[in-house]
Amino acid sequence: MTKVAVLIFCAWALMPTANAGTESGKTHLITLKAAKLDSGQLAYQMVSHKIRDASGKLEDITNRYSTEPTIPGPAIVMTEGDQAEVTLEQGIKDSNEPVSIHVHGVHYKIDSDGTMKVFNHLADQAALPGKPYTYKWTAAPGTAGTWPYHDHAFGNPMLGAEDKGLYGTLIVNPKGGKIMAMVDGQMKGVDIKDIKREFVLWMHETTFWGTEINHLANRQVPLWTNPTLGAREGELVRFHVIGIGTAFHTFHLHGHRWLQPGTTHLVDTVNIGPITRESFVIKAGEGVGPGPWHYHCHVLQHMQSGMMGGFRVIE
Ligand SMILES: [Cu+2]
């Protein structure tokens, strides 16, 4: 190799490499606020969500979210290859304490860890009143899945206040646009765009906290505690079940069964521990028809404490 060729080669080798797959991805410009509910619990609220495509065009999708703070917090949906800039505002009444967002699953640099200096030994990565903090996430290829995000600072600079309601869901859809599911008695790839509703259920101690992402109305609907879910028979429905807190649960859905992700196992009950999750697609009422079906935790003590809700499938 000539000297010039070596120099060109070295310059090429040292160029910052774009994350494969991100060139065509979108950038999510998100502002979230941490707030206090009348109940005294804490919650995240979507303030603004705009999506910038590769040509620079902005789409504002803020109106798809509740205008109030909710538990769980807003479900943020990205696709592998997308990036997000998430700015958090501290809007907690009567408090000057830092609050943060720590996300799981996706890629981020150490300054987007959402932790405090006492924990990360570098810097406080939290919002204060009048002083927002911005986190950068990359939904890199291979990070498709359902992930939690939660506070890691408020009230306790090591651990934060996730147990007071500061948690939400990040859904990274696979770039290929398909999810394996057992539908019509066959294991097959289901088109994500054919899913009509997604139910996000967080299992916290002896209570379910839910949100519906309704793709028919293009809206997220807060469902609050132990909700009754609803679907039409034959609709493709996706569940995201996530644990938080200290208890271990077994999530069970009556009359339905699903393919465990990455396996050929068909199940109707799964273990859910703190910050572990299960995400799956079913066809509502498949083989069993409409009815007032139920879901519940199958830990007897939790069932006895009322940890259950309905899954009404109508014709
Ligand atoms: Cu349980």
From TrEMBL:
Q: Which keywords are on file for this protein?
A: Copper, Metal-binding, Oxidoreductase, Signal
Residue limits of the Plastocyanin-like domain?
Answer: 70-175, 206-313
Q: A single GO molecular function, which one?
A: copper ion binding
Leader sequence segment: 1-20
According to the record, the segments passing through the membrane are none
- The protein's superkingdom reads Bacteria
Protein's name according to its UniProt entry: Putative multicopper oxidase
